[in-house]
Write a structure and sequence with these properties.
single chain, 310 residues, mainly alpha, Rhopdopsin 7-helix transmembrane proteins, three-stranded mixed sheet, 12 helices, 3 strands, 79% helix, globular, disordered N terminus
Length: 310
């Protein structure tokens, strides 16, 4: 305890993905390409939805907000990675680390809540089609977005306070490319029992409830689709939520893979590689999934790009 009182860490070392100098140029090009594709792809979704009156519906309203959150989510980590590779420095200050983990948890929670809101939208559209316009009115959509914002803000601040109460040794190496709360808790010199319990509790509440709601919504959706007599009607009903279901599986599947890999594999490097899929690849893939599997959005993008070409 004496050593902890005398020392206060002012910066952390981010180990990143590789120390090999030959890999640095390839990693820089890969991360820069993925980041540009993510920003450009999600911006196209936002512009297509806002410019096409046919897409001014609750489903596309949530989609455009999800695209905006995905840009923020990937922007909390990738610019720092690019800076570290370019300057050959892997240092992040204590304050910047707390800010990064707060933003990362904020956008991650927003992503999860928007996916659950979109699941509710599909549930109402398929299970209660006659009451869809009454239930999914603009007031409810606005409240869902506002509620998601404040819940995510609370979630991020809880993680900020939790990590800020920890004591660290003078030299701390984070076996990742960003400040991840579980990694920081493992590296703390002080007692981490309370922080670990808080981490599991907040993760179960803020992550578990949206997952359970999505599972409930799709259980009802599948049950409703199976009652449709015509096979063509079943295909049409399922096609309206197939894109969202693909994004849900990608987001939660990769997120779960990150934490399972950290438990199963003793290699910290494998956990960092899994985090790349969760934090960078998933936001990059979302625009492709929605644009390729959604006919209305595909037409809106063609009109938007055609208008810009002229």
């Amino acid at each position: 305890m004496e050593a902890q009182n005398l020392t206060h860490v002012s910066e952390f070392i981010l180990l990143g993905l590789s120390d090999d100098p030959e890999w640095q140029r390839s990693l820089f090009g890969m991360f820069l390409s993925m980041y540009l594709v993510t920003v450009f792809g999600n911006m196209l979704i936002i512009l297509a939805v806002s410019s096409d009156s046919h897409l001014h519906t609750p489903m596309y309203f949530f989609l455009s907000n999800l695209s905006l959150v995905d840009i923020g989510f990937t922007s909390t980590t990738v610019p720092k990675i690019l800076h570290d590779i370019h300057t050959h420095l892997k240092i992040i200050s204590y304050v910047d680390c707390l800010i990064q983990l707060s933003l990362f948890n904020f956008f991650g929670c927003m992503d999860s809540l928007f996916l659950s809101a979109m699941a509710y939208d599909r549930f109402v559209a398929i299970c209660h089609p006659l009451h869809y316009t009454v239930i999914m009115n603009s007031r409810l959509c606005g409240l869902l977005v506002l509620g998601s914002f404040f819940i995510s803000l609370l979630f991020s601040q809880l993680h900020y306070l939790m990590v800020s109460q920890l004591s660290f040794c003078t030299y701390v190496e984070i076996p990742s490319f960003f400040c991840d709360p579980p990694q920081l808790i493992n590296l703390a010199c002080s007692d981490t029992y309370t922080s670990t319990m808080l981490l599991y509790c907040t993760g179960s509440i803020f992550g578990g409830i949206p997952v359970l709601w999505i599972l409930f919504s799709y259980t009802q959706i599948v049950s409703s689709i199976l009652r449709v007599p015509a096979s063509g009607g079943k295909y049409k009903a399922f096609s309206t939520c197939s894109s969202h279901l693909s994004v849900v599986c990608l987001f939660y599947g990769t997120g779960l893979g990150v934490y399972l890999s950290s438990v199963v594999s003793p290699s910290h490097r494998s956990g960092a590689v899994a985090s790349v899929i969760y934090t960078i690849v998933t936001p990059m893939m979302n625009p492709f999934i929605y644009s390729l599997r959604n006919r209305d959005l595909k037409k809106a993008l063609q009109r938007l790009l055609g208008r810009k070409a002229h």
